[in-house]
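Data availability (excerpt). The following record was deposited with the supplementary files.
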Amino acid sequence: MALGNHSTITEFILFGLSADPKIQALLFVFFLGIYLQTLIGNLLMLLVIRVDSHLHTPMYFFLSHLSFLDLFFSSVTVPKLLKSLLSRLKTISLRCCLAQAFFLYDTGGTEACLLAAMAYDRFVAICHPLLYGQIMSNQLCNELVWGSWSLAFLDALINILLAMDLVFCGDKVIPHYNCELPSLFSLSCSDVSINISVMLCSVLLHGLGTCVLIIFSYTLIVSTIMSISSSTGRRKAFSTCSSHLTAVLLFYGSAFLRYAIPNSDSPLELIFSVQYSVITPLVNPLIYSLKNNEVKAAVRRTLRKYLQYLR
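Predicted structure:
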């Protein structure tokens, strides 16, 4: 049945971050700068991994997908936020709102699965280094990546299909800068108990499930590192997974702070949401470039080749 036959409300109003025009102008400049840096950082990471043969390894294969995912994740919310900051009409259609919620859910779930796959890669590299090339084959890497995308897509699709049957007939103001399922549930006149149950199952699968896998992997990694006799060896082993561990703490920490707070429309909730959906895609390429000597060396080699090409 058509979506419009279910709904008396066909659009919502995104309240955004501020109603003050002066503050909106400052926020526009701020978020535009962040978005451009996010695009440049992740595109540069993709380019370097693609061009430099030294980075054609499973770890950087996963990292290239993470960079593409961060590009997509940021582009789901920030362009609409920038448009709202410039426009007096801050409306979004119901269809566009559900589409944004779908892509937010899809990209967030994919990133959680991808970080778990990267944790497994680090576990194999440190705990079974002699078998690393045999275990982390091209086939397995592709299966882990496309499995992450497929599982998150299916999960998001189920949640959004259920949300499409909701009736919205009351308040149409979303006190946020984007559309997320919890915000939509609070505006619905329908019974959302099934939607909430399915969403909680999804959160347990993608959030708690992948988190348990990452913790288990790093428990074995730490145990292996501590068994290394030399301090130099321990330091070198830990350095190979420090960037990934930092990215994991940033992603899960900001996601927990964002969704642990009830849908209270508080300024603190908005701050954590910005950190989760805007700041994290910006910081990830910085983490992997500043904390990783291989990436820094690859960037220098790529720039050197580019300068030689210009000459």
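Summary of structural features: Confidence is low (pLDDT under 50) at residues 1-7.
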